[in-house]
Write a sequence for this structure.
């Protein structure tokens, strides 16, 4: 296993392996979905949205993919391919190492 991610409520967990991503129900331990990885790249970080329906993952090949869990057939959608447009003389370009989501904050 390369990476794990829980949804906000802790009901679901995504596990990322070398070939597949699996979605599990935490309370029952039941495997809900097995989805092939979108590429041979390694996952760096992953985040469920607030509703627990979309899973966004960043890979070490500088791509971002999203999986929507409320569809009949699950598949990864490429959301971004990060490219540097200018060369900064000998600089090593790295892959993203974290991901953030904007969350609504309720006022008391």
């Amino acid at each position: 296993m390369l990476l794990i991610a829980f949804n906000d409520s802790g009901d679901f967990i995504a596990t990322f392996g070398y070939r597949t991503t699996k979605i599990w129900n935490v309370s029952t331990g039941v495997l809900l979905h097995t989805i092939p990885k979108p590429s041979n790249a390694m996952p760096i970080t992953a985040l469920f949205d607030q509703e627990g329906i979309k899973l966004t993952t960043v890979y070490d090949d500088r791509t971002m993919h999203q999986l929507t869990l409320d569809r009949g057939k699950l598949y990864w959608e490429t959301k971004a391919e990060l490219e540097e447009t200018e060369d900064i003389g000998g600089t090593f370009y790295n892959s993203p190492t974290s991901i953030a989501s904007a969350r609504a904050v309720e006022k008391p």
